[in-house]
Specification:
Mean pLDDT is about 80; it is low at about 45-50. Strands 1, 2, 3, 4 and 5 form a 5-stranded antiparallel sheet that branches. The chain has 3 domains: about 1-30, no CATH class; about 30-135, no CATH class; about 140-170, no CATH class. The chain is α+β, with helices and mostly antiparallel strands. A hairpin with a 2-residue loop joins β3 (about 85-100) and β4 (about 100-105). The chain has helices at about 5-10, 15-20, 30-40, 115-135, 140-145, 160-170; strands at about 55-65, 70-80, 85-100, 100-105, 110-115.
Length: about 170
């Protein structure tokens, strides 16, 4: 997405720096051609075992960061039933892995979008926000070291999840 010319003229020398914030990734602008090519990859036909309709991305950390070893991002084509007919959609989901296995982090980290340019752009933005949230928060230290370890995301810079924070505040 290019910034409007009026804004570029006001920003003058800083317009290029602002443009970077409007890109999909550094140096990769949100163009219709980029989105169309990605949609084309999502729309390939094939058997489920080929996973030809799945963009499956992983971000792996060499060392454990805030209790998390691996963050997985999945963007794939799915069908959903709307008024007795099937409609294509894009499903975006984010998972994380810690020392004892993989866990989905609930309904706020799995969402369907329309199968079009806007839907794909929204799906990518959705997973970008969710991944940054997981990396920022990490896992609750108290829960991870409990006798039965739990995998709850921390609240802000407290180092504790909501449950442990409430327990500390009340008792």
């Amino acid at each position: 997405m290019a910034i409007p010319p009026q804004l570029a003229s006001v920003l003058s020398d800083h317009a290029a720096a602002v443009q970077e914030f409007c890109n999909m990734a550094p140096g990769i602008p949100w163009t219709n051609q980029t989105l169309d090519d990605m949609l084309d990859n999502l729309d390939k036909k094939g058997t489920p075992s080929e996973q030809s309709n799945t963009l499956y991305l992983q971000s792996r950390f060499d060392a454990t960061i805030n209790g998390i070893k691996l963050i997985e991002v999945r963007i794939m084509r799915q069908g959903r039933k709307v008024k007795k007919t099937w409609k294509r959609c894009i499903n975006a989901a984010v998972y994380y892995e810690w020392d004892r296995g993989v866990m989905s982090i609930g309904p706020d980290y799995d969402k369907d979008f329309d199968f079009d340019r806007k839907g794909l752009k929204d799906a990518i933005s959705f997973v970008q926000q969710r991944v940054q949230n997981i990396k920022r928060r990490g896992l609750c230290n108290t829960c991870l070291t409990a006798e039965r370890p739990r995998k709850r995301l921390r609240v802000g810079d407290t180092g504790l999840c909501s449950t442990c924070l409430l327990q500390k505040a009340v008792f």
